[in-house]
Amino acid sequence: MGFLRDVFSEKSLNYLMKIHEKLRHYERQSPTPVLHSAAGLVEDVIEELQTAPVNNEEKELLQLLSTPHLRAMLVVHDTVAQKNFDPVLPPLPDNFDDDFDEESVKIVRLVKNKEPL
């Protein structure tokens, strides 16, 4: 009993439970993204900022939008927004069936009594 009391009184477990509840609440809401191509929008903004004279705030915005961390975050956002989680596989060749001969495969396991192989 003392062990369970100690485990449940840990602050880290309490924080994890709060995070879990927040994520479950967020999942139940099933939010939809406002934009599916945030990276493309940022590219357009960068292009506009580069073609016109800019003040200090616009220069700072241009620097922030050009950082690799922000760009990576936007790519991840777009991937999640488009629900594009599966890897893209190359198409199968047209002559796939011709190249594939059926062969039997045997799985073999070697066992030697009380001695490493």
Automatic annotation (TrEMBL):
Which PROSITE patterns does this chain map to?
Answer: L27
Instruction: Supply the InterPro entries for this chain.
Output: L27_C, L27_dom, L27_dom_sf, MAGUK
What superkingdom heads the lineage?
Answer: Eukaryota
Give the SUPFAM superfamilies listed for this entry. L27 domain
- Residue stretches making up the L27 domain: 1-30, 31-88
Indicate what this protein is called per its UniProt record.
Answer: MPP3 protein
Task: Report the source organism.
Answer: Nyctiprogne leucopyga
UniProt gene name: Mpp3
